[in-house]
Design a protein that fits this description.
Number of strands: 0
Largest sheet: none
Radius of gyration: 16 Å
Distance between the termini: 39 Å
Order of helices and strands: HHHHHH
Shape: elongated
Oligomer: single chain
Number of helices: 6
């Protein structure tokens, strides 16, 4: 069956499998569906600087711990995962000062 995915879901898949594997998926998807949406999404992600992992974020765990005055642990990892999701949706958010504010909001909400 030909399943349609929204752009955020395609972006999440790309981040989950990585650039190279996602490119392979694009080739398979295009061959099967004659549809270039996945490859276009990948190209857009690369062009806009979408982070493909937590290590691509413009904030480190140490920055989060310092800003929130919290120790290393699962909470820092959870915040980083949420920050990655924010940046997958909007790569312009991947700036340390913006991410610090998002981290504070996430911390307050939890």
């Amino acid at each position: 069956p030909n399943v349609s995915y929204d752009e955020f879901t395609i972006r999440k898949i790309a981040v989950t499998v990585g650039k190279e594997q996602f490119l392979r998926l694009c080739v398979l998807k295009e061959a099967r569906d004659q549809n270039k949406v996945w490859r276009e999404t990948l190209n857009k992600m690369i062009k806009t600087g979408t982070p493909f992992g937590e290590s691509d974020l413009d904030i480190r765990g140490e920055d989060i711990m310092a800003a929130l005055n919290i120790p290393a642990g699962r909470q820092v990892g959870k915040i980083k995962r949420e920050l990655l999701n924010i940046c997958i949706k909007d790569p312009k958010q991947n700036k340390k000062d913006i991410l610090t504010q998002h981290a504070r909001n996430i911390f307050k909400d939890n």
